[in-house]
Amino acid sequence: MPRHHDLPRQDEQTVSIGSLLAIIRPIFRHHWPRLLGGFVALVVVDFLQLLIPRFVKSAVDGLSSGIATPQLLLRLSLLVCLVAILVAVLRFTWRFLIIGFSRILEKKLRDRLFDHILRMDQPFFERWTIGDLMAHASNDLATVQMACGMGLVATVDALVMSSAALGFMVAISAKLTLIALLPMPVLIVCTRILSGRLHHRFNLVQEQFSLLTEFARATLVSIRLIKAYTLERFQEQRFAALGETYVRGNLKVATIQGLLFPIATLVGNVGMLLLLYYGGALVIEGRITIGSFVAFVSYLYMLIWPMMAVGWVANLVQRGITSLRRIHRVLDQQPVVSVGPTIPLPGGAQYLYSCRNLGFTYAGASHPALAGINLEIGPGLLGMTGRTGSGKSTLCKLLLRLYPVPDGMLFFQGVDVNHLSQADIRERIAYVGQEPVVFADTIAANIAFGRPEATMEEIEAAARAAAIDGEIRAFNEGYQSMIGERGVKLSGGQRQRLALARALLCDRPMLIIDDALSAIDVETEQQVIRGILSRLAGKSVLLISHRVNVLRHAERIVLLDQGRIVDQGRHEQLLIHSFYRVMVEKQRGDA
Questions:
Q1: Closest Cα partner for 326 from 112, 10, 6?
Q2: In angstroms, rounded to a whole number, what is the distance separating the alpha carbons of residues 275 and 293?
Q3: pLDDT at 55 over 70
């Protein structure tokens, strides 16, 4: 029996840097003029800042030698002011261009991630929690944005500033430069050790954030159930425990970050100490001027920032790579429902679905959910019933192409579904599930979800067919009433009929109703059935229900048991079957 297997979860460590960069490389290519302008402004700012110590050197040497004049000092002061103004303007320019680019990159990555998630099939959402996906679309994207924004800025700034400062320092005294840089290997070794640990700990923090987000989402969604069972305190304790774990993880990350900065500062200050000792001796010996010594000190101060930036950049890069790996793990997933070379869907006023020895087994299940199903779903009302777990909802999911099926088992318009576009099939099917989905929007917007362009007359006609028009008008604002998150202002029966009105408004050739009338009273149920039959004449309707009053309107009823069709026929014909007869007698007794 064919099985649906779990998607293999790729080991994050096996993904190459090249594969990760391939995710963001197209965005960089598209916006290279913006980046080029930003980095040019950044480099010019760095070189302008390097000119100021030269002006100070000239002023100090002039003062120490007695050749300085007020005009010289005024000219140097004006030059410093001019450089400062240019630095301010260009600094705004590079921030606008480069940091702005990082926000554009974040937006494009979020759009790509969202589009990819929308294209995934049911098995994907059985493996990934909503909280995990929300963490990818929030924390992880923000981390990548920071790495591609300030991380790039700090990297380029540190490279340019350190290279230029070293050049000026070597020009003053190569020996003194070597002495000032003696502590640098300590920083390199410490950064390498701490960066590896940072990657592992930050990855754990992101996973803990996913758990925290998912728990909060699940709690809010089921808030009425939690209150009904007075579990508020219990949920608070569980949430607090998750939050404590998340904080501990962040503290471990902060410990590493807290070590990087002090180590970089210590290395810079040790270099300054060596400079003061040996550089002062060179001044006393007259081998360099006081102005050169002051300029050298200024350049070394400029070099301390790149030293500190090493730790900061390493932190940003490691966090960015970790988050990009997590995003790559989602983008690397592919739908299990495969489609071979597609062919055009044969047209027609009526559509036919055919099952030929159809079988399906869920991943990890020991028994098939469906086996040997031979069935045709064509124009007219086809009923289906059976015990709980007999495979009725599974069949609906296969018809909607939410799970994969082998070749030669499922046909739409006479063509194997594996050779048809999933969109072509789904665009011709309206579906009402067991758990109706409604949104925190107006009633009209909920009904028009499948056809946003529908007029109010069409929306009202669909609501009348679903026997909910009168109840909608009883609301203060009628069809413009907000129904709250997950339809909290509606009863279960109202939500079901609203979802049915949405499906009827779509006016598609095929309608699948998966036990979506269970919360409706008998009188309303008959109104709904009449509305369905009046609007869907000549269309294909699959109606799954356990209620005899609904099923008896069907031209044919299919009885499922343990994933197999055990009988089919009209209502009167199925009365000879024990299960169906017991169901009828019980419902008559209840009535």
A1: 10
A2: 9
A3: yes
